[in-house]
Design a protein that fits this description.
Helix 2 (38-50) runs parallel beside helix 4 (68-85), helix 2 (38-50) runs parallel beside helix 12 (250-272) and helix 5 packs parallel to helix 6 (128-135). The mean pLDDT is 94. Helices cover 45% and strands 16% of the residues. The strands form two sheets. An eight-stranded parallel beta barrel has the order 1-2-3-4-5-8-9-10, surrounded by seven helices. It has twelve helices and ten strands. The two termini are 19 Å apart. Strand 6 (160-161) and strand 7 form a beta hairpin.
Length: 275
């Protein structure tokens, strides 16, 4: 998917919602455990219930890898289902990969060619030769960790190194990499006060923003400082939507939570941006 196609979907749906598919068998409705593939059945119901309210879906691969081969099969069935039934949705493999040279190329091949995701998350700690292999794939996006929402983010990401915070150096450096126009950056919603500075460095890039919902990040604060003329944000919500209920009505309740966010997003778009 191209960046323009993603922007077009945001315009059509008046939404920049990304639904995280972080499936834990201990949290899904018990009746689904009777199915041969409960993870896929859960995902399918959530996707069907919210596809018109979201522009993106993001399976966190750890929640599938934890179940071995069966979990990987569930992931493959999930991405195939999205691509076949809802091809205009932007898909994110939240895998946080990152290694040098041929290893990164193989990771990229796995997610972009075999599974056919539109994007994958990567860690930039090993530098450009760990990220550029992902950027080499046409019409695919590489989502790079920049400033995350977890408590440990302050261990390294905000350290002052020669007068500049490390996350700012990461952002500035990445702009010089080959095909950097296909970079998206992860910035946690719990770091809303940093968005103004981040937008000075990457004004036109999309930002993937976790932490709204269960982690109590503020959508309005993120948008206040993070919006650009094309919206430029993908706001991820996982637990607050997919685990809104653990009963038979789980998909309906998930839709209700997604709709609340979409309506808030539509109001922000109508007030702030002429799309």
């Amino acid at each position: 998917m191209t960046t323009q196609q993603l922007i077009d979907q945001i315009k059509i749906k008046k939404s920049f919602l990304c639904v995280g598919l972080d499936v834990d068998l201990n949290k899904i409705p018990p009746h689904l455990l009777e199915f041969e593939d409960p993870i896929f059945e859960f995902n399918k119901a959530i996707i069907d219930a919210t596809h018109d309210l979201a522009v993106s879906f993001k399976p966190n691969t750890a929640f599938y890898e934890a179940y071995g081969i069966k979990g990987w099969v569930s992931l493959q069935k999930t991405i195939n289902y999205i691509n076949e039934k809802y091809p205009t949705l932007f898909t994110i493999a939240d895998a946080k990969r990152g290694d040098i040279g041929n290893t990164s190329s193989m990771y990229a091949k796995a997610f972009f060619e075999d599974l056919n995701f539109d994007s994958v998350t990567v860690a930039p700690y090993m530098g450009k030769d760990s990220v550029e292999p992902f950027l080499a794939f046409e019409n695919k996006h590489t989502i790079m960790l920049a400033l995350t929402s977890n408590e440990g983010a302050y261990d390294f990401q905000t350290l002052n190194v020669e007068g500049i915070e490390l996350y700012k150096q990461v952002l500035e450096t990445s702009k010089n990499w080959i095909n950097s126009e296909n970079l998206i950056y992860v910035v946690g919603a719990t770091k809303a006060e940093y968005f103004k500075e981040i937008r000075k460095i990457v004004p036109d890039s999309f930002l993937l923003v976790p932490g709204v919902g269960a982690q109590r990040g503020s959508l309005s604060e993120v948008c206040k400082y993070g919006l650009n003329s094309n919206v430029g944000l993908l706001i991820n919500s996982s637990r607050a939507i997919i685990y809104a209920s653990n009963r038979v009505d789980f998909a309906e309740k998930a839709r209700g939570e997604a709709q609340k966010m979409q309506l808030e997003m539509a109001a922000i778009i109508n007030k702030s941006i002429s799309l």
